[in-house]
Fold:
Amino acid sequence: MIRLPVPRPGRYSLRRRLLAWLLVSTAMIGAVALVDTWDEAIDTANEVSDRVLAGSALAIAERVIVSEDGSLEVDIPYVALEMLTSAAQDRVFYRVDGPPGNFVTGYRTLPSIPRREGQQAAFADSSFRGEPIRVAALARSASTGINSVPFTVTVAETTIARQQLTRAILLRSALRILFMILGAAFIVWIAVTLSLRPLYRFSEALSERSPDDLHPITERVPNEVQGLVDTVNSFMVRLEGALDALRHFTGNAGHQLRTPLAIVRTQLALAKRAGTLGEAREASEKADDAVGSAERILAQLLLMARIDAAGRSTAMGNVDLVDLARAATAEHVPRAAEAGIDLGFEGEGEANVTAEPILIGELVKNLVNNALLYTGTDAEVTVRVFATGDKALLEVEDNGPGIPPERREAVLKRFERGETSERPGTGLGLPIVEEIAGLHGASLTLGEGSGGKGLKAAIAFPLAR
Structure:
């Protein structure tokens, strides 16, 4: 049969994934910050340059006077234009206007801004001679001693220096953000590397273990990883239990099946060499009995392996112990009649317990089988179920030879049998009963039957709520 390769999920680096999330998120935040910084840089550049423009316009306005003929005269101070010089080689323009419609000096076509006397300087963006400019306008009046003559001073400059200042502010902000992103990435790289060291130690601890070492891992790990370690430890415990059950099953099967199989081989050999049909039939009957014994042993071993692997994971439900025991007892009535044994059942009403019905049926079957096997003919076996207090009692009592008190603890061990070892058996019946009882929180007690004769096996189950 051709086995196709099973596709494995793609591997990825936790460190790189964290870095990718960090870089993407910080890049988005940085982009938003740069947009805000751009607006802030424009406002800052305008605020700084507008103050110089306003100062230049004020210096020119202070040099405006009224001549003897009532016209306005202005002596443009050098300092007023010097204030606007910069390394960006911006061009500077000015204009002085008298009463409406009266141009005094400067650049006649320079755009002006309407302004009322006494107000602060006004600013606006415009263009002049095909170049973008920033315009500042200041309205004042010159006094003649009798009256005052209003005038407006307009000063403008190109925006090269402003744009350079804006770009410089934006570039410095971008460099700071880039430095913070790279610094954060470096810190995250180091932090993740250090944080993953417990996982590396965890991996090394697993790789250095021998295949037979399934003990829980005790490596110290962060709280975020402790759940994974607990899950692995729980899995290793379950795996160890399953492997132990498999080892027990294979060891027990090899030990217990060796004798029946040897008998079968021997009897088949005898049947082959038999001189008469009767001898061949006798040998085949003994071989058939050995095969039946092997079947019983194998069934008991499989049940024991199932109990070993079941643990507390067995699906439980609310069942009536009276009905279960009555049905299991009824299955053995024909066999008891053939053996000349009086098998009876006592139990009325209900005794509800939390149990797995199939396992409880196996429990009753093993108790009844033991009783039928060892009591002998003309004996009595009674199965009874009744509730007392918070317990449901299941009893199987017989009046056979029983088990001496000093042997009752020993027969609860696997493959240990009573004193009547000439009877066929595996030595697993009572151990199976005890383990099934343990799975259900019940306890098995072996004692004497009525009148001090026989054996009474009593199992106390907690009643279901």
The chain has three domains: 16-170, 223-307, 314-462. The first helix runs from residue 14 to 61.
